[in-house]
Amino acid sequence: MVVRIAKGFGYCLCTKKTCELKPGDGFMVPQVTGVTVRASQLGALRLQYFRIRPELLVGLLTVAECQQLKTLSSNSSCIFHFRAKELDGQEFTRLVEKPGNEKLAMRCALLQFWANGIAGLFGKPALNGSSGKKLRERFLQLMEQLPEAELLEFSLAELARQLHCSERHLGQLYCEKFGVSFRSHQVDLRLQRACRLLADSRIYIASIASESGYNSLTLFNATFKKRFGMTPSEWRRRNLIKN
To answer: How confident is residue 130, by pLDDT bands cut at 50, 70 and 90?
Structure first.
């Protein structure tokens, strides 16, 4: 969530500190983070904001970037402030005050603003000084370059051949880096894709199973129910009612 103060004065209250907000100031924060914005006693506060859903940026984010975003989202103290007089504040002001109805261009510009803002929070991947440093570096470099959406197209054996290592060694590196096995991560990505497709009631469940990488509809239904506690059809009905 990226928020800007359009009018008025207020305060941003988060876990560890309180920050005063003036017109043109703003902040960027994971939506799950507990942040409260309060107006001062001087008058009303008007906000401008937009929300980014990284899980929908299929093909744009790499495996490593998706993992870093998940880490940031779980950090309750992760908040990035910008001031009206700073470059970030000036850029946001320029975007929201830009005339015209080029909505696609505006959305792309806001996405770029968000990407620039979080880039500094990522940092560089840490490397160990072990004997497997060269392999670890190649692995991290691959994860920085491989779009997460394309991870479904590879098997562990294929990635191991690219890195010139054994499947066992690659599996250990993957689990160490991402906290889950390669197989578990692939299953999670397949089910995320399935949920996005289920939001469109015109697509048959069997087609969604195939698009999500399952040749067997029975296996797809069983895997989906194990993960979400309901069948794909039930998930679709509940979420269509909510929307």
So the answer is: very low
